[in-house]
Amino acid sequence: MNSAAIYGVGSYVPRETLTNEYFTRTLDTSDEWITSRTGIKERRKAAPDQATSDLCLQAARAALKDAGVTAQDLDLILVGTITPDHPTPSAACLLQQKLGLGAKPFGVFDLSAACSGFLYCLSTATAYIQAGMATRVLVVGAETLSRVVDWSDRRTCILFGDGAGAVVMGPARADGPSHTILSTRIFADGQHARLISIPAGGSAQPATRATCDEKLHYIRLDGREVFRFGVTKAVEMIEEAMARHNLKAADVGAIIPHQANIRIIEAAIERLELPPELFITNLRSYGNTSSASVPLALDEAHRAGRLPPGKPVIMLGFGAGMTWASAVVQW
User: Fold this and answer.
1) What is the pLDDT of residues 137-182, one digit of tens each?
2) Which helix (H) or strand (E) is 263 found in, with range?
3) CA–CA distance, 109 with 192 (Å, rounded to integer)
4) Do 205 and 281 sit in the same domain of this protein?
5) How far apart are CA 252 and CA 119, in angstroms?
6) Strand partners, 167
7) pLDDT exceeding 70 applies to what percent of the chain?
């Protein structure tokens, strides 16, 4: 089988920044309250004329440039998102068109795994490449969560932001830079589906005046249970990845966790007894961007030189479904 690898990375965030002070104008909250409970200071909000596929496009262009390939080289596009432009067509189809590939038919699709979405797509792309079914794959994680939060609910609206991250993948190569995928893992447990959800808008509860009045089209979550789930799965995935590849702390180049809440990351660090400097975090600036979280942090760490060449990077995500996923990449 071919070994799959990452050729290039890219990301994009909208211009508008919402600071914690923004929420103090309409909610009973403060900068200190938000920061101490989440670690978030700012988050980005898409412009009214921006949809998820527009964010995908900017991140994709950056990743293609970093990889040194063109959109015409692609033969598969995967988009991880829970906030596509429309129920149908997929954001991936719209991205294909916006990349100017309408006259070049090939497979594209969205994948819905919430905050694990990017890593679910990465795992899927890896399988396609290993099987010889694709040679140049664009993988994007993108969200416009500002469209699905209740701005009067301080438990949720302070958490989420908009953004996109992308990677270009293909077979591991010796003629240019590439970062080999050592392993991927994806999991789900639908018994916990109630913990994070958008109740209405699908076939179970189609949009009606009542669903709108009851704010059922917005994100709802059980914060305490999600916290417990996140810490447990983060610890399990990191321990499993290190054991699978026989890694000690000194062997690991970096750990890129889903950027949900700084307390989840700190609790995992404490339980694992790993050096905090191994962990890449940017939720202070962007909040929780769901599917975009891991690739956005990956791109920033890559551009900042925080991913040591030749060392494995552990990425992990966990979110609605409930889903969780991990990947280990030889950087």
Assistant:
1) 999 999 999 999 999 999 999 999 999 999 999 999 877 678 999 9
2) helix 262-272
3) 26
4) yes
5) 19
6) 9, 139
7) 100
> Mean of the pLDDT values across residues 266-289?
97
Cα 329 to the center of its chain, rounded Å? 16
pLDDT at 262: 96
> Which band of pLDDT confidence, cut at 50, 70 and 90, is reported for residue 104?
confident
151-154 contacts: CB < 8 A, separation 24 or more?
151/26, 152/26, 152/27, 153/218, 154/23, 154/27, 154/28, 154/29
The arithmetic mean of pLDDT across residues 65-82, rounded, is: 97
Q: Alpha-carbon distance 329 to 312, whole Å? A: 5
Range of the domain at 190: 181-330
Structure tokens at 301: 């760490």
Count the Cβ atoms, other than its own, within 10 Å of residue 137.
26
- Catalytic (active-site) positions: 115, 258, 288
76-80 and 137-144: which strand pairing?
parallel
SS3 7: strand
CATH assignment at residue 83: 3.40.47.10
Cβ-contact 23, 156 below 8 angstroms: no
d(CA 289, CA 215): 21
* Ranges of H-type helices in 87-199: 91-98, 117-130
184-231 per-position pLDDT tens digit: 999 999 999 999 999 999 999 999 999 999 999 999 999 999 999 999
Residues 6+ away with beta carbon under 8 Å from 9: 62, 63, 66, 165, 166, 167, 168, 295, 298, 299, 302
CB 136 within 8 A of CB 71: no
Answer yes or no: do 147 and 8 share one domain: yes
> What's the structural domain count of the chain?
2
CA gap 316, 258 in Å, rounded = 6
Can you say how many angstroms the Cα of residue 98 is from the centroid of all Cα atoms in its chain?
21
Tokens, residue 148: 């699905």
Paired strand residues for 111: 80
* 33/44 Cα distance (integer angstroms): 19
Phi, psi of 138 (to 5 degrees): -100, 120
